Amino acid sequence: MINNDVLRRVRFALRINDGNAIDIFKLVDYDMDKDYLQSIMKKDEEAGFLPCRDKTLAMFLDGLVIQRRGKKEGALPNKLKAGEKLSNNDILRKLRIAMSYRDEDMIEILRYANFRIGKTELSALFRKADHRNYKDAGDQIVRNLLQGMVRKYRPEAAKDSTSKKTYSKLQSLPAENNKPTNKQAPRMHYSQKTEKQVAPNTPVNHDIWGKPKPKK
């Protein structure tokens, strides 16, 4: 899953238009150029597409943490150094902090995408890399978390979340709709949702690290 897709889906799920995105980058002392921002929001087959660098996505997610959780006094922006990569585990961790997700919240969000995971499997993704129970996160769990966020926060447009039409809708959103509020993303348990609100997909027969499940 490329960084452009992650940026695009996070922005859509949380109703973040260009102006708000630029403000988020400013929170980590980065002046994002609007033309460049629009280029990394394009799909790779579109004219003017530019790849979103790991450093750029990391700054956006760090800015999102500050916007939603506040900035620690005296803390400096922790930007990726040259050669450093942003892993899927890092993306999950930053989203978890920004959204104040507990284990139960992440499991619930993933259920919106018909993706099942246990607490033990989930906790392995947030261990330190040198921990014996640490596991690398695959593209699948990142993709399903973002899909679950779209289905929870934008159920009216979940099927169109990565299309060009959707991005044009995003640009027309008023700024006040982009502020993180409890009303915008009410907490509800999955068992309270109806089938109409969460359209089920066919379950995928592999685990979160992309390995096929053995046939019984």
From TrEMBL:
<protein>
    <recommendedName>
        <fullName>DUF1456 family protein</fullName>
    </recommendedName>
</protein>
<dbReference type="Pfam" id="PF07308">
    <property type="entry name" value="DUF1456"/>
</dbReference>
<feature type="compositionally biased region" description="Polar residues">
    <location>
        <begin position="164"/>
        <end position="184"/>
    </location>
</feature>
<dbReference type="InterPro" id="IPR009921">
    <property type="entry name" value="YehS-like"/>
</dbReference>
<feature type="region of interest" description="Disordered">
    <location>
        <begin position="155"/>
        <end position="216"/>
    </location>
</feature>
